[in-house]
Design a protein that fits this description.
heterodimer; A: about 230 residues; mainly alpha; Rna Polymerase Sigma Factor, Chain: A; Arc Repressor Mutant, subunit A; 9 helices; elongated; disordered C terminus; B: about 90 residues
Chain lengths: ~230, ~90
């Protein structure tokens, strides 16, 4: 009786295997489609973490292979994007951070809130309403990225995920494995440091420390042509 | 009604769309009434936009996309070969 049962069960088991295989294949195909939508964001974030294009590529690839293998642990209905960034962060911490040795000390000075607004607005009382036409507007993507790269690591990733990739506080908390309150305080400090770093980039690019660049005869400050500095 | 100090403190969470509906109303009505805070708000918003737009110009290299597609295909094959034995 026992033997008969076992024989009978076999075709059913094979059919189960087949369905399970098909299901697994469909699930993994869906993973690939969904995950690749976030490839640009993952790469940009990896680049801020490693500050090195070749390490960033390896990091994203490793993270996506891990995410693929653990995809059955992802709970449908929860936030897929935050889950991917969480795996990226963990992969970085486990495999890459060690390789990079001690993080370089940041020399950024902390500043007051709304540093750039205060710096760029005229003493005479005219207040700006837009970065357009200011020295900041002259900064290229590479200079802005360099400014973010100058933030200490925990602030850098948090600012990147929030201000560039548009993750919510809850998503950043999930992605970086900290409480929401920690995300908020990191953003608070990180954005202040970023304003200082952007200002440093504008000065390094040769835009002098006056306010506006487009006002002939304003206060005599003229922007140097792009690439003219250094 | 909140004052300028409260408004300045709430500005970043407001830009992040992380304030409660009640607080959003408070900030909005302050911004409508206070030109100074409105300018600051508009400036900070334009700064956020600048950083976001410029940084998003960069995407992943096409070769990375190809590498990953290939790697995931290999992973899928491994998975298919392993599955009957694990069941």
């Amino acid at each position: 009786m026992v033997r008969l049962k076992a024989v009978d069960a076999e075709p059913a088991a094979r059919a189960d295997t087949k369905t399970a295989n098909q299901e697994a294949a469909a699930t993994r195909a869906r993973f690939e489609e969904e995950a690749l939508k976030h490839l640009d964001a993952l790469y940009r974030t990896a680049l801020r973490m490693t500050r090195n294009p070749s390490d960033a590529e390896d990091l994203v690839q490793d993270a996506l292979v891990r995410a693929f293998r653990f995809y059955d642990r992802f709970e449908p209905g929860t936030n897929f994007r935050a889950w991917l960034f969480k795996i990226l962060t963990n992969t970085y911490i486990n495999s890459y951070r060690r390789k990079q040795g001690r993080p370089q000390e940041s020399s950024l000075e902390d500043t007051e809130d709304f540093f750039l607004y205060n710096q760029l607005s005229d003493d005479g009382g005219e207040r700006l309403t837009d970065v357009e036409g200011t020295v900041l507007d002259q900064l290229g993507a590479d200079a802005i990225q360099r400014a973010i790269d100058q933030l200490p690591p925990q602030f850098r990733t948090t600012v990147q995920l929030s201000d560039v990739e548009g993750l919510s506080y809850a998503e950043v908390a999930e992605a970086t494995g900290v409480a929401k309150g920690t995300v908020m305080s990191r953003l608070f400090r990180g954005r202040r440091l970023l304003q200082r770093a952007l200002w440093d980039q504008a000065q390094a690019a040769g835009f002098t420390s006056g306010s506006k660049v487009h006002e002939p005869g304003g206060n005599g400050v003229v922007a140097k042509p792009r690439g003219g500095a250094r | 009604m909140i004052n300028c100090g409260d408004c300045a403190k709430a500005l970043n969470p407001f830009l992040d769309r992380e304030l409660s509906d009640e607080d959003v109303i408070q900030v909005r009505s302050h911004l409508e009434a206070c030109g100074g805070c409105l300018h600051l708000y508009q400036f900070e918003e334009s700064l956020r936009r600048l950083v976001r737009v410029k940084c998003q110009e960069q995407g992943a290299p096409a070769t990375l996309r190809e590498r990953i597609t290939l790697q995931l295909a290999i992973e899928r094959t491994k998975l298919e070969q392993r599955r009957p034995h694990t069941l």
